[in-house]
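Q: My labmate handed me this sequence with no annotations at all. I'd like to see what the chain might look like in three dimensions before we decide whether it's worth expressing. Could you predict it?
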Amino acid sequence: MPYRINDHELIIGASIGVTLFPDNARELQTLISQADMAMAQAKYLGGNNLQFYNKNLQSASKERIALETSLRKAIFNGELETYYQPKMTLAGDTITKAEALVRWNHPEEGLITPGRFISIAEESSLINDIGEFVMRQACQQARTWLDTGWEIRVSVNLSVSQLRQTQLIELIRTILDETRLPPHLLELELTESLIMDDIERTIETLHTIRQLGVTISIDDFGTGYSSLSYLKRFPVDALKIDRSFISSLDTNEDDSAITRAIIAMAHSLDLKVVAEGVEKPSHLQFLRDNACDEVQGYFISKPPARDRIQPVSRPSRLIQTWSTLAVFTDRVHTVSCRSSSPAPGSLPAP
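A: Here is what I predict for the chain of 350 residues:
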């Protein structure tokens, strides 16, 4: 539950690491190091939990340190790539939006998904550099699409570290100016738990972002702490129903009921609804029948391969739309970070 401190509402969590004396070690510094490894593991598993040190964490810690070092180099070496997963508007079966997703094309390990490196980036402060890279490349991509005749809004995930940056607003403004992208073609996605952290400050920041003309959506809705009393205060445009509800629409009546309720509630607040994780025809039909606005997932399209977008079997209008989009996306949709990398030896300002 939120706590009020000096007129600010805060969500407080705890990640705890424990080691045992004398079973694991006798020296103080060794014990502290072991407890720190266990705490890092607790954070890696999502936070708000307790982990005990074990010998496996020693090797895991070394792997994470090595991965962090490689990630720092990746920012300079052009190894990060942006992929775009389309969102389909159900009123017309057309593609008008796409979510920008970051991938790491490691020279030895191949493609590394965010699940392996985003938590490391968050702990090491590299998340701000990665977030800026993705936002800039997404805006450049949207501008390219616009110049080719397609008005596609790109959505970018915003981390808690980025949201707390004092220069976030100026960064957004600068990127929009540099790419000459109309602000309404950029959407920022924030998780439900993120917006509930320091509520008053978050509301103020989101209002300022909205004043730029940028749209805002709440990601993973239904898994966090928000209530109607809080939700109506946030200046947001859309809710994304978490994939955990969508995946069991045809097997779990409770999840079906929750999904219907979220759609009805959002519409009553004049918010659009996006369902993520749509993987079956039955998912799509359920969402059509219940007036969901947009859908996203493997049944529509997987996050596209590095050099092209591959549509799946959909209504003919959608296939024509996304196939045509793929013609020029083939040439530009994978963007390395070389074009905006700082000089070797220095990182962009956080």
